[in-house]
Amino acid sequence: MAGVATSGRTRAERKRKVIAEAATEAFLTTGYSKTTMDDIARLAGVSKQTIYMHFGDKERLLFAVVMEIMTSASTPFDDDIHLLGDSVDLERDLREHARQQLAVVLQPRPLQLRRLVIAEAVSFPKLGRSFFELGPGRTIKELTGVVRRLERRGLLRVPDAARAASDFNWLIMSEPINRAMLLGDYNAPSRSSLNRWADHAVRTFLAAYGTDR
Predict the structure, then answer these.
(1) What local confidence, expressed as pLDDT, does residue 77 receive?
(2) Which residues pair with 210 in a beta bridge?
(3) How far apart are CA 98 and CA 168, in angstroms?
(4) Can you tell me the distance from the alpha carbon of 97 to that of 189, in angstroms, rounded to the nearest whole number?
(5) Whole-angstrom Cα distance, residue 205 to residue 1?
(6) Distance CA 199, CA 35 (A)
(7) In Å, how far are 68, 105, 166, 202 from 171, measured between CA atoms?
(8) Confidence label for 112 from pLDDT (cuts 50, 70 and 90)
(9) pTM, whole model, 2 decimals?
(10) Are 197 and 102 in contact (CB under 8 A)?
(11) Which residues are bridge partners to 156 per DSSP?
């Protein structure tokens, strides 16, 4: 009986994953408003009733899609950010962090997701809040702890750790994200462009908060 129950859960999980992948493709390429449950059912190869059974409704399906992408994208950063607090070559490690962050954030899917959330934030404020909390809000919170550790080690001088962490995050993100969002260019930037943005962000941050300034 246990084997049957486990098999049933596995089939349900696979079905849920197929639906979520179909919804992700539809929402990101067509937009939430223009995507119908019929579209998702056709892409997933299931009935609309099956979608309703797994997700409840279209809004909850959107929320599940956004949470899955955000969680998958942000989790790998946690350990990397924590390691910054133990850095023995701060400029090098901050530069590597900034480059990795841009390489992930500027991929087509995260950019399309950001545009989708922005478009629906007024209609679904909970979605916008969750995106912020799992994305930039989470990163800034983790960086705040790192900044405090680095200050205790004498590597940074900051009057406000949270402000400094936010400054660093947006020094990295502001220009490339604005270009992608406003110009609609979802092609991944060249490695040289990523390095240039990241390295400038680190130099500016250390010029403002480094102990050698």
Answers:
(1) 65
(2) 156
(3) 9
(4) 17
(5) 60
(6) 40
(7) 26, 14, 8, 8
(8) confident
(9) 0.81
(10) yes
(11) 210
Q: What is the DSSP string of 152-175?
A: HTTSB--S-HHHHHHHHHHHHHHH
Burial class (CB in 10 A: 0-12, 13-18, 19+), 67: middle
According to the model, what pLDDT value does residue 50 have?
A: 93
Q: Which residue has 């979802």 as its token pair?
A: 186
The C-alpha atoms of residue 102 and residue 176 are separated, in whole angstroms, by: 8
Length in residues, the chain: 213
**52-92, pLDDT tens digit by residue?**
999 989 999 998 888 888 777 666 666 678 889 999 999 99
Burial class (CB in 10 A: 0-12, 13-18, 19+), 147: buried
- Decide which of 4 and 75 is more confident: 75
- Please tell me the distance from the alpha carbon of residue 145 to that of residue 85, in angstroms, as a whole number: 8
Report the DSSP beta bridge partners of residue 82.
none
The pLDDT of residue 35: 92
Q: Which of 209, 140, 210 is nearest to 173 (CA)?
A: 140
Q: Look-up: residue for tokens 């954030």? A: 105
Region 195-206: mean pLDDT is: 96
